Amino acid sequence: MGRGDGDRRGWLRGAPPPGWVRALPLLLVAGVCVATLVSPDPLDLGFLLGAIPPLAVLSYGPVATGVLGAAVVVMLNVPAFQLDQPGQTDVLTVCFVAVLSVFVAFVRRRRDLQLDTERTIAEAAQNALVPPVPERVGPVRCAGLYRAAQRGTLVGGDFFDVRVSAHGVRAVLGDVQGHGLAAVATVASLLGAFREAVLDQPALEAVAARLDRRLAVDSARVAHAELFATAVLLEFTPGADAVRIVVCGHPAPVLLRDGTATEVDAVPWTPLGLGLMEDAPLTALVLPLRPGDRLFLASDGVSEARDADGVFYPLLDRLPALAADADPATTADRVWNDVRRHCPAVRDDVTMLVLAPVRPQGR
């Protein structure tokens, strides 16, 4: 499942302009023509035509901007329009503005091409770092949703992954200190450690300890870095009849069962990166699963989203109705849309992972 939600940048932040902006120069040309032809008296509207080339720069390239600029100059010299009989100075001024607009349009087009290239590279880097979760991993149906808080970026401080191992399907969802581009290096380090540990470590607790050590080592390399991350790790048995859960300072998973939503009663451990797991090893919670059960994992960007009155998003109250459809992808999309209605200005990274074990027939 993709992480996009339309183009969240907005047209003033680099997204393509809306249709009304593209139509504005043409509508202005048509409006001036109609007004001058209908009016029995000459109208002093030449100044409006001078605004058409700069408006065209917002939406069009240098060729279209030049065509509109030439059309303006022609209109100023057509007797039928009677645009207050502009003098030579007026025509020269409009010509200068039109030529300048063509140059600006050329520069803008080159810049847009460069930005598109950089964004394509960023999308490729993101897919390499946090690839979309497959619809199914082993006996588990999956759906992931990612929304970075920092506008214009595709990756932030949250991460998730689902992998097959010899010990069952293993999943992780976490949130590193901070968000935006500054957290990308930490996310890359943790995901790399998780993917290696999934293959090497026989116990889920050992996978968590590997992540803890990785972050502690990274933090020690930089003075006063104090890197840490919260995370929840899961391991489904090969038969998908139980799941082992380790919670490291992160909101616990929510179990969706028989139309209810219940937070799993897992003992929370310290966040990753503090180096405390070697002194006091943690123990995973074993949760038996029934047919139709689903697990909903989310970052604190969901539970801590507040409305205008400062009320937190009531996840447990709303999740049963939003998860009425058994499709994991539908559940994630519905929750995201509901969070946006509750808190239109979400200021934190939002990550969700919906996991639905599929029991083999006859079990």
UniProtKB/TrEMBL annotation:
Ranges where the PPM-type phosphatase domain occurs: 140-357
Entry-linked InterPro entries: Bact_Sigma-Reg (IPR052016), PPM-type-like_dom_sf (IPR036457), PPM-type_phosphatase-like_dom (IPR001932)
Coiled-coil region(s): none
GO molecular-function terms, A-Z: protein serine/threonine phosphatase activity
Enzyme class: hydrolase
Keyword set, alphabetical order: Hydrolase, Membrane, Transmembrane, Transmembrane helix
E.C. no: 3.1.3.16
Transmembrane residue ranges: 20-38, 45-71, 91-107
Pfam families reported in the protein's UniProt record: SpoIIE
PANTHER family reported in the protein's UniProt record: STAGE II SPORULATION PROTEIN E (PTHR43156:SF2), STAGE II SPORULATION PROTEIN E-RELATED (PTHR43156)
Protein name: PP2C family protein-serine/threonine phosphatase
Organism annotation: Streptomyces sp. 900129855
